[in-house]
Amino acid sequence: MTSFDYDLIVIGSGPSGQRAAIQAAKIGKRVSIIEKNKSVGGVCTNTGTIPSKTFREAALHLSGFRERGIYGSSYRVKQDISIEDLLFRVQQVINLGIDLVKNQMSRNRVELIEAKASFIDPHRIELTSDNGDGKHQITGDKIVIACGTDAARDSNLPFDGQRVFTSDDIPGLKQLARSIIIVGAGVIGVEYATMFAALGIKVTIIDKRATLLPFLDHEISAALTYVAQQNNITMRLSEEVVSMQIIESDIKTVEVKLKSGKVLRAEACLYSIGRIGATENLALDRAGINRDDRNRITVNEYFQTNISHIYAVGDVIGFPALASASYEQGRAAARHAFGINDELKSGIGLSPYGIYTIPEISTIGKSEHELTDEGVPYEIGKAHYREIARGQIIGDSTGILKLIFSPDDKKILGIHILGEGASELIHIGQAVMAHEGTIDYFVNAVFNFPTLGECYKTAALDGLNRLSI
């Protein structure tokens, strides 16, 4: 019988890697987790999810944006907001997150190895340390790749991390620009666009597509577009960038030329054209692992790669690329690797999608256009925050909750929310959907008053009224 140093080696300490390592440790396996950066937690903790959402919260608080519906558009908590003001809060939360991950690893007896990993063969990993220890090898019976992604970069563009940068560079910014061009209207690009706009920065979005976040229910996408334009975000949709340069003058300016002939200028540019798998230096070919043209790893329904004892989880496998789903993927992969198959993919099938724009968006299930394309009959019910006492109290006049349900048995087919607290509010509907509930639950339920949860009752009653017309 072959002897290995570890029962499981996990490459990457982000959400999916953490959960895989801890799950294996809890069933008595010898586990190591390898992290190439000195700060554990992966992109999620250090440059991605946690920093961006903390940045958003700091922007909302310091700009007074939430209270403007009550006190007027000129209301601000702090007049002159600096990048230091924003990043102080970001760094505090990052430090807490790193400490939490390290504590979890220690409590569960998972060995943390700070080194760069690359495959020698399907069971052997070479470790390269930055602390002068040189290189050495470890072996694992099972391996989970949870290395995450890097922001995509175009080698023809003048990235300097300050004037032209990606979202990964934001925690290291030295100043806050007065105007910014955002290339790419994906989730990350639109999230930061709305954050910068809330701070009073002049924002221009450029994207090849004609619609903002077209995967959303079209009514929600249209509502987001309207609110963004009301907050002085300029949209340059159906446009393509052909060149970019930093113009050196008294004030450095980024100049962006579009295929249509337009020339745009701003103090800074955020380049946000998706992400690619951070697998470039793993030497996957030595282990025989397949990857696609964006360096992402293909897996089956059990998160196995084409090499059966090697798994991949989290953003490196592509959609949905959410921390919430990544946690469950890591857990499911570890359980399958060691023959515990009772809860494979638990919680992964019916997952909500949270988008931390301003206003916030969350969605679960099918959209109107998806059901139309599939030929599935449906009806809708809507509630507007402005009609709900809690919405009036918090000053959110643009929020909306939309239920989509079957007209035959009234089962819920989809829920789409735009407005304050959307990512929290979605879980009420998620629970009802998971138990195949109907809108009758919301009609008969008693909600605390005043709360945004009442939107469910209002939307359900609206849906029933539509059925009776």
What number is the mean pLDDT? 93
Oligomer: single chain
**And the CATH topology of the largest domain?**
FAD/NAD(P)-binding domain
Largest sheet, in brief, is: 7 strands, mixed
Into which percentage range does the β-strand content fall? 15-25%
Structural summary, described in words:
The chain is α/β, with parallel strands linked by helices and 469 residues long. The protein has 14 helices and 22 strands. It has helices at 15-26, 42-46, 49-63, 68-71, 83-107, 187-198, 218-230, 284-287, 323-337, 368-374, 389-394, 422-434, 440-444, 454-468, and strands spanning 6-11, 31-35, 111-114, 116-119, 124-128, 135-145, 149-151, 164-165, 179-183, 202-207, 233-237, 241-247, 253-258, 263-266, 268-271, 275-277, 310-312, 353-355, 361-365, 379-384, 400-405, 412-418. Helix 1 runs parallel beside helix 9. The longest helix is centred in the N-terminal third of the chain and has 25 residues, at 83-107.
Produce a short descriptive summary.
The chain is α/β, with parallel strands linked by helices. 32% of the residues lie in helices and 23% in strands.
